[in-house]
Design brief:
The complex is a heterotrimer of chains A (290), B (249) and C (325).
Chain A lengths: L3 H33 L6 H19 L2 H27 L4 H23 L15 E4 L2 E4 H23 L1 H11 L1 H6 L4 H27 L5 H16 L4 H21 L7 H12 L10
Antiparallel strand pairs in A: 1-2
Helix pairs in contact in A: 1-5, 1-6, 1-8, 1-9, 1-10, 2-3, 2-4, 2-8, 2-9, 3-4, 3-8, 5-6, 5-8, 6-8, 9-10, 9-11
Chain B lengths: L3 E10 L2 E11 L4 E5 L6 H8 L7 E6 L2 E2 L5 H7 L1 E3 L12 H12 L14 H13 L15 H14 L4 E5 L7 H14 L4 E5 L3 H7 L2 E6 L2 E6 L1 H6 L1 H13 L1
Parallel strand pairs in B: 3-8, 3-9, 6-7, 7-8
Antiparallel strand pairs in B: 1-2, 1-4, 4-5, 9-10
Chain C lengths: L1 H24 L2 H26 L8 H17 L5 H23 L4 H21 L1 H4 L5 E2 L7 E3 L2 E3 L4 H23 L2 H11 L1 H6 L4 H27 L1 E2 L6 H14 L6 H19 L3 H15 L10 H6 L7
Antiparallel strand pairs in C: 1-4, 2-3
Helix pairs in contact in C: 2-7, 2-10, 2-11, 2-12, 3-4, 3-10, 4-5, 4-10, 7-10, 8-10, 11-12
Classes of the chains: A mainly alpha (290), B alpha/beta (249), C mainly alpha (325).
């Protein structure tokens, strides 16, 4: 018999898990926007494609570790191609066309996924070693979700290290706050941007493959993630990594608790959040860069 | 009654304080110049008066009405218009269309859906009259973005006056102009501001002393002095702070 | 300036006469395609009011098309003896209301923020259409919309189960709306919108209320999209979530850009090419939506002016009904 406290703890951890996943995806999105004022609509597509590719890997080789490696790397490559041969080419024609092309790429990714894997949900099994549950909070908590937390925190620590301690990280931070100055300092901004773009895609792909045993893979997952990450960066502020972090956790928790206590709202909860944000605080929390 | 009154204006941009208690009174029909070194806050004062930003503290009164915090379109409709230091025209439209935008607005036709614009003869006449005044009538079909700098500046001024304002704010209208262009611009300004009130920000002291009947000196967010040109020219504080710098350039 | 105008009037008159004679020398399938082209033209033109004229890039325009379609369908299905034209007008009005509400939130934002907001609102409405089975039939949709009895328009009696009456009803409505929309772009308000698109800051300092003008245009555009949706519901005799989903939003963007967003006629041409092309290609392969995506990317990369951009300038000037950019 689960006590209310147990339920609260469980939902809180669920929320944390989803929040961290959101952050993995949203971080790339917001950094890319901060650097080049481009909102990459295809970004959620990398999440989806990574999930499907990872799931396919898992299905064919049975090796989870392999899929954990292949998904982000393949997404980094896809991301690099998208940036270098599509996005960069329309950059001079203005923001509208940048949006249009990333929209087109997102659409194509969606159609590709439907073509290869079908227009219906495909659940992914939790890998054997990570199945089961650990006794916690008066009940048992799924090991796999703890694994998701572990991976995301690992990535977070890595990100913090890169941004605070490495030359590249400092360059990226500088480029986000002042792109023109950074160019004048002789830093190769296009190459840096390509790196951030692919890196973000890799993270999104990783989030996808890691999340798929829990969230399943289905053709609409890209769109769902797109709306969620959009709400994240609206709340957190366009271009603010810290804002994305705070907002991701907020939304993760709010969604989990909201959906648990009022299941009828499940499908529309993200929109309620968005409406609330638009009405209450349209300018976001941090680093507003509209 | 002063046409424009600025009371105790403060402005800070996320912690960066730019204006510290600026006071300004402009009488109707006056030609009032605002001078001061770069970064003194002159454009900021303009931006606050015309509604681009809200002051952190203080009040702005136009024709005795409190316009503090009003949005730009409301202020423009009340008869207070401005030009921009960096040319801010409709680059993808012709010279004619540029001025016509202002003329349509002045005639309250912004939401008119019933008339066929290119057949509106009254509008065309009014637009061409203004084009004649700024000497751009022959260029009316040229794209504004392709005009030479001097002509763009003239268009900039034309847009400002096409609204038939009572108070005109000109922000460094002669910026980047040759001596010849400056002279004709000063003439233009003189013409179009007859019977109106003018507040002008300028760096060119010759222009200032030619046009102005009152000068206010802004020095790093504060009023240093305000009065008729002879007074300002002889004011020691002003000399030390600003005019002295200018002459030694 | 008389010659170009006379040429345009003659050209358009000829086009209209041809359209009215069309059912007599086209077969059933071709006539049906023309009907589709007609209401999709209206949809695409409504989209271009936002993009070409107001400079607003929307990714969720199907929201209003769908609102119009569903409203018409629901009214015809649930209210016995509902006058068809009233149901369709209501479709437009409901879409316009949606436009006011959604526009209110979106129009204050620029660029990417605006675009993603429209997408999110579209997704919301799609989710609602999907879940609210009692109202919308969920993914089963609503069928049987065309009235069993012929409708009466003054002296004219139209049996909409026949192709010709359907064709003329749709064509007349579309042509009237297209004409009115064109006139709007030539009015002072049309100019206001374009001025704001050109330089919204300067426009504001010249007395233009930028937000309000954009909202008016957004609402007007939504109204037109809703009418197009109503016509769609009537012709297809069936409305489902496909009328309000991302695919539909993508299609209208494609139609507008395919023809060219730089003129009033561009989207109309784009719709014609689109309908004809998708009809052809969906007969060849199931993966036509994928091909659509690829062509869209090619369009954005290499043919941003659309098909109209490919027509030599002299020929274009016959239909010079106005540069939107």
């Amino acid at each position: 018999m689960e006590s209310t406290l147990s339920i609260l703890f469980i939902q809180a951890i669920h929320g944390l898990v989803y929040g961290m996943l959101l952050f993995l995806v949203a971080s790339g999105l917001t950094l890319v926007f901060g650097m080049m004022d481009v909102l990459n609509i295809a970004h959620a597509g990398f999440y989806m494609l990574g999930a499907y590719v990872g799931a396919a890997m898992l299905l064919s080789t049975g090796n989870f570790l392999l899929s954990l490696i292949v998904a982000p790397i393949s997404m980094a490559l896809v991301g690099a191609v998208v940036e270098r041969y599509f996005l960069r080419r329309v950059h001079i024609h203005g923001h509208a066309f940048e949006l249009l092309i990333t929209f087109g790429v997102f659409y194509i990714i969606g159609e590709t996924v439907k073509w290869i894997w079908g227009n219906f949900p495909r659940p992914v099994d939790v890998p054997g070693i990570l199945s089961g549950a650990i006794p916690m909070f008066g009940t048992a908590y799924p090991v796999y979700r703890l694994f998701i937390l572990f991976i995301s925190f690992l990535v977070l620590v890595l990100m913090l290290y890169v941004f605070m301690k490495t030359r590249i990280g400092i360059n990226i931070r500088a480029a986000v706050s002042d792109p023109y100055m950074v160019n004048a300092l002789g830093i190769n901004v296009p190459r840096l941007f390509l790196g951030v773009f692919s890196g973000g895609a890799a993270l999104a792909g990783l989030a996808g493959v890691v999340a798929s045993p829990v969230l399943s893979t289905y053709p609409g997952m890209g769109l769902d993630m797109m709306v969620d990450t959009f709400v994240v960066i609206v709340i957190g502020g366009f271009g603010s990594l810290f804002g994305a972090f705070v907002a991701s956790l907020m939304i993760g928790e709010l969604q989990c608790f909201g959906v648990h206590f009022i299941p009828r709202l499940a499908l529309v909860f993200q929109f309620l959040l968005m409406a609330a944000v638009l009405i209450i605080m349209p300018t976001g929390l941090f680093g507003e860069k509209e | 009654m002063a046409i424009l009154e600025v009371r105790d204006l403060y402005k800070d941009f996320s912690g960066l304080e730019v204006l510290f208690g600026v006071n300004l009174i402009v009488e109707p029909g006056e030609r009032h110049a605002v001078i001061g070194p770069n970064g003194a806050g002159k454009s900021t004062v303009f931006n606050l008066i015309t509604g681009k930003y809200k002051p952190s503290k203080g009040k702005i009164l136009f024709k005795n009405q409190d316009i503090t915090g009003f949005p730009p379109h409301k202020i423009a409709r009340m008869g207070l218009t401005r030009s921009f230091q960096v040319t801010n025209i409709f680059r993808n439209m012709t010279v004619f269309e540029n001025v016509r935008n202002a003329v349509l607005s002045k005639n309250m036709l912004r939401y008119n859906v019933l008339s066929y614009l290119s057949r509106m003869k009254g509008i065309t006449r009014e637009t061409e009259a203004i084009l004649a005044q700024i000497d751009l009538l022959e260029r009316k079909s040229e794209l504004a973005g392709e005009l030479a700098h001097g002509h763009q500046r003239a268009l900039e001024i034309g847009l400002t006056m096409a609204m038939a304002p009572e108070l005109i704010l000109l922000d460094e209208p002669t910026a980047g102009m040759s001596a010849e262009e400056t002279r004709s611009t000063v003439q233009l300004i003189d013409q179009i501001t007859k019977g109106k009130t003018l507040v002008i920000v300028e760096h060119d002291m010759d222009v200032v002393f030619t046009i102005a009947d009152r000068i206010t000196v802004l020095y790093y967010g504060q009023i240093l002095a305000s009065g008729p040109p002879e007074e300002i020219r002889d004011d020691q504080k002003v000399k030390d702070a600003y005019l002295g710098e200018e002459e030694n350039d | 300036m008389r010659h170009p105008a006379t040429r345009s009037i003659v050209a358009i008159s000829i086009a209209i006469i041809l359209l009215f004679l069309a059912p007599f020398f086209l077969n059933i399938l071709q006539t049906r395609m023309l009907i589709e082209i007609a209401y999709f033209s209206l949809f695409a033109v409504s989209y271009n009011f936002l993009f070409g004229y107001a400079g607003l890039l929307s990714f969720g325009h199907a929201a209003f098309f769908g609102l119009g379609a569903y409203t018409t369908a629901i009214l015809m299905k649930t209210i016995g003896g509902m006058p068809l034209l009233l149901a369709m007008a209501s479709g437009g009005i409901v879409a316009a209301l949606g436009g006011v509400i959604i526009g209110f939130f979106c129009v204050r934002r620029k660029g990417a923020y605006f675009a993603l907001l429209t997408l999110a609102f579209n997704q919301f409405l799609w989710a609602m259409a999907w879940k609210w089975r009692a109202l919308t039939g969920g993914d089963d949709g609503i069928g049987d919309i065309v009235p069993d009895q012929p409708i009466h328009l003054g002296i004219v009696k139209l049996d909409l189960y026949e192709l010709e009456p359907m064709y003329y009803l749709v064509m007349v409505i579309v042509l009237v709306f297209l004409g009115a929309g064109w006139y709007l772009t030539k009015s002072p308000f049309g100019n206001s919108v374009m001025a704001i698109k050109g330089n919204d800051e300067r426009a504001a300092f010249l007395g233009y209320n930028v937000t309000r003008s954009k909202l008016f245009m957004f609402t007007f555009s939504s109204f037109y999209a809703g009418i197009a949706g109503s016509l769609f519901a009537l012709f297809q005799d069936f409305v489902a979530t496909s009328s309000i989903d991302l695919s539909m939003s993508t299609q209208v963007i494609f139609m507008a850009f395919l023809g060219g967003t730089g003129s009033y006629l561009g989207p109309i041409l784009g719709s014609a090419i689109f309908v004809y092309f998708t009809d052809w290609i969906s007969g060849l392969t199931d993966r036509w939506e994928f091909i659509l995506g690829v062509l869209f990317i090619i369009l954005v990369l290499f043919f941003r002016e659309g098909f109209i951009g490919l027509i030599p300038a002299k020929l274009r000037s016959i239909f010079a009904t106005g540069e939107a950019t």
